[in-house]
């Protein structure tokens, strides 16, 4: 971590929409760098969509210089095809981070919610509210996928701080 702080890239993977959020922490204070979504063309072949996700994540890493990344773990979906596509999108994002030398930590959705709201069953509006409060953004204009990605990044920062303080 430099005097400019620690930059973390949070990723909420999806084959159609992948959310991302870049958060900088300086002296325990988190702030928003950038948040948005990577949208793929559902009419294109899956390999092209995965390549698009990989390229856009690689561009973000190149532009903002995060040193760590955090990504939501794949949950078991009722539809095996959807779960497979989600896993592939997650893999493309992880590969882009790994090629750039970032460590990537995965978090369960309930862990992210617990870390920010205090309960693993919080709804998306509660999580989005806490993200905006933690990052000091009064009127957030980001998409729900970007909000989830920011929540993952903040969760990662909380986990890092906890491990450092507890000597783990």
Summarize the entry for a quick read:
This protein has 168 residues and is an alpha/beta fold.
Describe this structure in words.
- With 168 residues, the protein is α/β, with parallel strands linked by helices.
- It has one domain: Ribonuclease H-like superfamily/Ribonuclease H (Nucleotidyltransferase, domain 5, 2-Layer Sandwich), CATH 3.30.420.
- 49% of the residues lie in helices and 23% in strands.
- The protein is built from 5 helices and 5 strands, in the order E-E-E-H-E-H-E-H-H-H.
- A 5-stranded mixed sheet has the order 3-2-1-4-5.
- Helix 2 links the parallel strand 4 and strand 5.
- It starts with 5 loop residues before the first strand and ends with a helix.
State the name of the first-level CATH class: Alpha Beta
Distance between the termini: 18 Å
Strand order, largest beta sheet: 3-2-1-4-5
* Number of continuous helical runs: 5
Give short descriptive properties of this protein.
5 helices; Nucleotidyltransferase, domain 5; single chain; alpha/beta; globular; 23% strand; 168 residues; five-stranded mixed β-sheet
What's the SSE blueprint?
Elements: E1 6-12, E2 17-26, E3 29-39, H1 46-64, E4 68-72, H2 80-99, E5 103-107, H3 109-117, H4 124-135, H5 144-166
Parallel strand pairs: 1-4, 4-5
Antiparallel strand pairs: 1-2, 2-3
